[in-house]
Model the fold of this input.
Amino acid sequence: MSKPRILMCPPDHYGIEYEINPWMNRSLGAVRALAFRQWQQLHDTLVELEVTVETMTPEPNLPDLVFTANAGVVFRNRFLSSRFRHEVRARESPFFDAWFAANGFGVEHLPEGMYHEGAGDALFCGESLFAGYRTRSDVTAHQWVGKALGVRVLPVELVNPRFYHLDTCFCPLAPGEAIYFPDAFDTYGRRVFANHVPKLIPVAEEESHRFGCNAVVVGKTVVHNSRCPRLAADLEGAGYRSIEVELDEFLKAGGSAKCLTLRLDGEDAAGWKARQ
Ligand code: ARG
Done:
């Protein structure tokens, strides 16, 4: 099997310069030197796991460009570029598009007037593309992506403003297996997961608030934010190795491990990838 490939963007220009989710508070700010060390540790941890980490060039005045998960949806050699809800992030798209075009991907755009925030809100688990909507992405955009890729989309509403992207409260581990924070969804959403993901591991509220669900999965290893002991134990119990990397400077922007990465060769939990 070929090596996993992940896109990251160094935090040279990272900061809390606006407030577009409940975690962000400009007056708290972020300590850039510390953010850099934490980002580097995540990077080095992934390299040790034999991931090929590609880095793109950071850009001034784009403090959230570090969150590459939101660039778009990657499907084989296709890149479906995001349509960000907020103008401050929409300015990132030309840079993401340029990177993907220069790296051999076919860049596609959703119709105007739709909102879609990429792998932040659309995650494959087995054959289905789980699609979080309301705060950022909308259902029409998810349906458009499903049609473009020829896959089944299962929309789930994100009802808790702190969990504004799907990847903050749901993380597929393998086809049919995932961790999630049940309270981020309504009864219907929880039923969707129960019906389509046979092995579901709930994450406790406190650890969900530490972005435990925002994890990077590489084979049987799960990399997530620090101080999530119950999640770590549950993962070990389910046959995974848990690695904690402190990423608290990024929590201040409403992000953690998963948001800082974008899998370029397809997530291990995706049915289409597992069949390759
Ligand atoms: N400040 C960024 C925003 O609000 C954080 C993005 C986090 N990314 C993610 N995939 N959850 O858009």
